[in-house]
Amino acid sequence: MSWVVVVPVKGNPGAKTRLGGPGQDRARLADAFALDTVAALTAAAPVLAVFVVTGDTVLGAQLARLGAHIVPEVRDQADALNAAIVVGLAAAAAEFPTAHRAVMTGDLPALTAADVERAFVLAAGHERSFVPDADGTGTTTLLALAGVPISPRFGPGSRAAHESAGHVPLALPTRSGIRRDVDTPADLDLVERLGAGPHTSALFAAASAPHHARVPLAAPLVTSTDRPLEK
Is 155 annotated as a binding residue? Predict the structure, then answer.
């Protein structure tokens, strides 16, 4: 079974405020999370294409080099995240009308291709399904088979909203990278222990280097400040 995946990518120096620390450091982490998420998706065998919806041209160029299709963000102040997802789903359907579809958040730095492939195997048994976050109240991934309408309802209480819309929760372990989105320092610590992708791991390594050799978290990547999309 072949899938196309839509990834909405937000970000600005005010992103991930629950992580604490300087805004530029948080933006660096958010960039790394998105890069590792998309890298894992493009490495998964069933994935035909990844469509990233973003208003950040700098990060978008980096994600395009990983193989992502970049869809310009359409700003909607009322519901920016779900509006962006709808735009991405429309772009994916136009290019791959017979493929199955998934939406995945862009903050899964511990995601692996194996995690993605396992989720798709389970999703094949349901017209609509989803992957809850590790806390059990949110959603990291929303899935639907080809031709089945999909209405994203990401945001607070998204698990209940997606279940009420007919999506079945997939039985994946809480330690799986596909359930480990990062919003808090505790989430970040656990991802570091589980093993993150190369972009996030590089930031961990820079932060733990001896003081005289330490690279500031904000230094390695260039980021854009034009990032209105919020989760």
Answer: yes
Contact indicator for 11, 59 with CB cutoff of 8 Å? yes
Task: Confirm or deny that 224 is annotated as ligand binding.
Answer: no
Q: Which pLDDT tens digit goes with each residue over 43-65?
A: 999 999 999 999 999 999 999 99
What is the spatial distance between Cα 56 and Cα 50, in angstroms, rounded to a whole number? 16
Tell me the C-alpha distance between 106 and 25, whole Å.
17
State if pTM tops 0.70: yes
Residue 158 annotated as binding? yes
